[in-house]
Amino acid sequence: xxxxxxxxxxxxxxxxxxxxxxxxxxxxxxxxxxxxxxxxxxxxxxxxxxxxxxxxxxxxxxxxxxxxxxxxxxxxxxxxxxxxxxxxxxxxxxxxxxxxxxxxxxxxxxxxxxxxxxxxxxxxxxxxxxxxxxxxxxxxxxxxxxxxxxxxxxxxxxxxxxxxxxxxxxxxxxxxxxxx
Amino acid sequence: xxxxxxxxxxxxxxxxxxxxxxxxxxxxxxxxxxxxxxxxxxxxxxxxxxxxxxxxxxxxxxxxxxxxxxxxxxxxxxxxxxxxxxxxxxxxxxxxxxxxxxxxxxxxxxxxxxxxxxxxxxxxxxxxxxxxxxxxxxxxxxxxxxxxxxxxxxxxxxxxxxxxxxxxxxxxxxxxxxxxxxxxxxxxxxxxxxxxxxxxxxxxxxxxxxxxxxxxxxxxxxxxxxxxxxxxxxxxxxxxxxxxxxxxxxxxxxxxxxxxxxxxxxxxxxxxxxxxxxxxxxxxxxxxxxxxxxxxxxxxxxxxxxxxxxxxxxxxxxxxxxxxxxxxxxxxxxxxxxxxxxxxxxxxxxxxxxxxxxxxxxxxxxxxxxxxxxxxxxxxxxxx
Lengths: 180, 384
Hints:
The complex is a heterodimer.
Chain A: H1 3-21, H2 25-45, H3 49-72, H4 90-110, H5 126-134, H6 138-159, H7 162-169
Helix pairs in contact in A: 1-2, 2-3
Chain B: H1 2-15, H2 18-55, H3 71-81, H4 92-110, H5 127-135, H6 137-147, H7 152-183, H8 188-193, H9 207-223, H10 235-238, H11 248-273, H12 289-310, H13 316-343, H14 348-370
């Protein structure tokens, strides 16, 4: 365990704890961004350059912003009022969390060697990943691209002004609340 | 001169004790980046104010030092000694962190650009990916700045800024992907190496490269909130956007980050399209590479100042429409043009095939988008 690993893990964990502990939901999101940064740094430390940069680009640059926009567009997004940090479903939560933890522990303890011999670094340069995506995995890539395009078109249809949608269908436009 | 700098670094490193060599080596790469671009920022503000003054038929700064050259220092001193106001309703921690954090991604982005054959602060295998990944953090930090004061104008400004940055990031990244495709590498060093020789080897000297360069410059202007895309801080509408209610040195840090962001974009534009640090003609190679890099840099910065002095600010809907309806289709067309260029052999045939591929959609798209809009030459009634 190197010093860099300890620092990066601490950043990740503190960010995660902060994301759970803060009352103001925007603070939680900012802490979540710290966690994402920590995970990206962990990838970089493991030598997975592409994965680290992609994690940063997608999670910090897009997902966090998406969450923030969703929060700002939601009503009552101020600080939560409940006095106790524990919700009423604490019993079932503990049960589920505890069983997951137990499963993980069981799986980890069952593995034969916790200190395996170091294997050779896999050839995970950006170029190798790119070539693999364009040759061997080209079909899954295209399928994902199609799926994302369909999702985007769906989002545009949902977001389209309703009166405009009615006009294109030839129906008389009904007065809707969210116009303008 | 290039080797001189490298030699100097290794000489200093030899003098240092063993355990200091690793941190010192990195310090000697980091400190020049910070100091050179921070002083360029000071110089640029002076050049910009002088240039804008010239365009607007006035003098510009002319009191501090000869021809006002010490004005940036006076401004800096003023900013440091100004009272640092934190509004009572502000979120103190986020308010404090936002301007400081905003400088970090721009500095990191500047550190992957090759300034000379060996003058690369950090040579990454996926340098351009790092550049864009780290640039993505700026949006979150602008949100932090806008949100932290619970001020309507600041929040609106931040929302405008984020919407603009996300929209223009698409043509920005796509137009550089064409270059990555043609150079066959994500490493900025390799991309520069693929443009060695004379200026006709630069990517800008091809049909797709020329179109890509113009798209990249436009998107870079919008990314760094420069006029005519400075809607996030449109003074006449929302005071200063996400910088409202920031004072003193924090405000100066926002400006520093804005200019450093512009510098990083300019550096990337030079690296991708203008041949990086290469001389335009082979016999000019005796002039060291950094001079060429910073010469091109100065040219582009002057161009940006000229644009700022010339063009009026866009409207919000025009801004978004321009990004999604014009720039995005044009970048996709440059993709096709790049592929055609690759298979037509980089010669006369390529020119014949690719030029109409780029020019015709440009004209058609431009006509279609301005159709029905009443665009006439403005008639000045009083100021002629």
